[in-house]
Structure formats: structure tokens, C-alpha cells
Amino acid sequence: xxxxxxxxxxxxxxxxxxxxxxxxxxxxxxxxxxxxxxxxxxxxxxxxxxxxxxxxxxxxxxxxxxxxxxxxxxxxxxxxxxxxxxxxxxxxxxxxxxxxxxxxxxxxxxxxxxxxxxxxxxxxxxxxxxxxxxxxxxxxxxxxxxxxxxxxxxxxxxxxxxxxxxxxxxxxxxxxxxxxxxxxxxxxxxxxxxxxxxxxxxxxxxxxxxxxxxxxxxxxxxxxxxxxxxxxxxxxxxxxxxxxxxxxxxxxxxxxxxxxxxxxxxxxxxxxxxxxxxxxxxxxxxxxxxxxxxxxxxxxxxxxxxxxxxxxxxxxxxxxxxxxxxxxxxxxxxxxxxxxxxxxxxxxxxxxxxxxxxxxxxxxxxxxxxxxxxxxxxxxxxxxxxxxxxxxxxxxxxxxxxxxxxxxxxxxxxxxxxxxxxx
Length: 423
Description:
There is one protein chain. By secondary structure, this protein is mainly α. The chain is built from 23 helices and no strands. α6 packs across α9 (138-154).
């Protein structure tokens, strides 16, 4: 038996080496993604350091991290954090999150038991699955795997920002993140991007990872904003995964003409950067998937095909220029956590109102295609709608948009949706 054990252990040497190097690779990649966002999100990093300091979990001087005066100077000069500084934040965020997840019910989630199995080499996965479930460090292994996945993919400050924005505990955030990752099949996208190492420019790979980061952040927030306090990962994956596949299969065909053109342009940019055509198409459709869960919800509630709802949703976005408004929200400057919170809330509200309006338009629909249905809705004699359209046209002629102006636009959309409910 001892000989068999030794032979088995020896046979796994290469895979164990790969698993160790893989974690190093992902941490390095995470630092590169954080470095890209370091200037624009320097306030989040400063807030993270202050928060950990306030909890007695971090000594800034001991770790050679910038003082508040240095942060102010870097902000003024448009300089972010260095890779060594970011690596310190990455490791501290993992230490803190690991303990938070260990104190939560995340290690008990049956869906996340898969992370326990993934942690071990394949030879052990096949032969000793039952023993893994009884492993004395089972909870710690699951907490470690979930921590690594979330921090390596989303960066050091993601969980803290989500906590502050939604009021949810780290365990809930981990569940919402896991649902988003599974529904999007993000692991497949990540591995396709990583397979291009040495074949495309590293900066282009970071651009691609950032597109997934943005979408994952949005989907996680969307799930955390659902009413009710428990997130059942398996049930949510079951609820949304098939609809997500249906939506992805109909793209770009169910997009509005304007969106289709910009998607085609983006596909060419990825191909010019030496990305394979299929991956270029997937990356170019990610912006449309920001609305995926809203579309799937409307389809479920109204018992309609996802494609039908998507056509109306995207056509509505085009006629009301909601993509422009979303872009303006994204461009709002963030000076501290309350700005970040305000921007996130405006984004959530915009998507919620688009969902409500799409549902109303579909309720009055018959056999015509989505674009025609939206066109009919737009041509109605409705003073509230006329006022909204002219207000948005006026705003689009402005050079810059600030928080108050964007708030007025989103509020106007909400009034339009409410008027439709009453009408």
C-alpha cells in the first residue's frame, strides 16, 4: 500500500507543480489588471488601506504603503500604485476575506463543494472524492479556493466596495460572484484569453480581462440587489444559465442596428489585435450582456422567448439613447466611496427602469417584431414620453455630464416607467 501511495504521489508531481505555478500566474495577472485601474481607482485603494488600518489589520508604515499625503500627491500627478504596493493589498485582501468566508456559511454550500474537488490533482479527484468531503480542512480549503478565485479575478478592493455599496456580507458577495461566474461561463473566457500568452500583446489581454471584470462586477451587484437575503447558487445558476446561453446565441442578431454596427467594429479591433474570430465575437458582445439578467427576468415573468424580449430591450435602449446615458454614468468622476456608491446606484436604477419599460412595451405587443413594437410605442401621443425624448436630446448636446444632470435623467426615466404602470 505504501508503494502504491508513493507511486501515486510521484505521478502527481507535475500537476502539483502546475497548480502552484498557476496560482502565482493568476496573482501576477491580478496585479496587472489592478495596475491598469490603479490611477482611475486610486481612491478605492486608499479607502481599503484606511479601513484595514482602522480595524488594526494593517500597519501602513510597516508595509511601506503611501501615506495620505503621498496619495494626494499621486492623485494630483496622475500616478497609481506600484506593483509591489498592489501585491501587498492583494495578499492582505486574501487574508481578510479568507477569515470572513470561514466565519460564514459559504463552506457549507453544496455547489461550492466543487471548489474543494478542483483544489486537488485529477488523480485524487477521481479516486477519493468521498474522502475529500470528510477532509478535516474541508471548510478551509473551500474558503481558500473561493477567496483565490474572487480576489485573483476581481482585485483587492472588490469585496469591500460591494459590501459598502449593497450592505451585504462577504459570504453573500462570494455566492453572487460564483453565480455570475457560472452563468457567464467566465472560466472558459478567461482560459481562452490566457491561451493567447505570447501570441497577442499583453495589454490587449488586460483589455479583454477588464471587459469581463466590468461585466462580472455588474452581474454580481445585480444579484446582490435581488430581494430576499439568501442566494442559493445552484438554484440561481439553474434560473439564469439557460437564458444566458439563449441570449448569447441570438447575439448580435437581436441587437439594434446601431449596436450591431459598433459590435462589428469592435470585432475587427480584436481581430486586428490577433484574437481568434470566435473569441473576438464573444468579447464584443459582452457589453450587451450587461442587460442579460434583466432580459431573462422579463422573459421568465412574461413567459416569452429570450430573443423576443432582447429585441425589445435593445431597441428601446437605442431609441432612448440609454447606451449613451450608461456611458455618461461610467464617465462620472469618483472622489471617494460616496461618489462610487452614487455612480453604482445610478447604474442600477437605469437598468431597472429599462427593464420596467421593456416589460410594459411587451405587454402591449402582438406578432410584430421587437423593433416595430418599440417604434409604435415611441410614436404614441404621450406627453410624458415626448418630454423625456426632448430632455435627453437636449442633454446629449451638452459637452459634459455631472452627477446632478445624470440623476435628473435617471429620475425622468423612472417617472416615465411609473406613468406607464399607471396608464
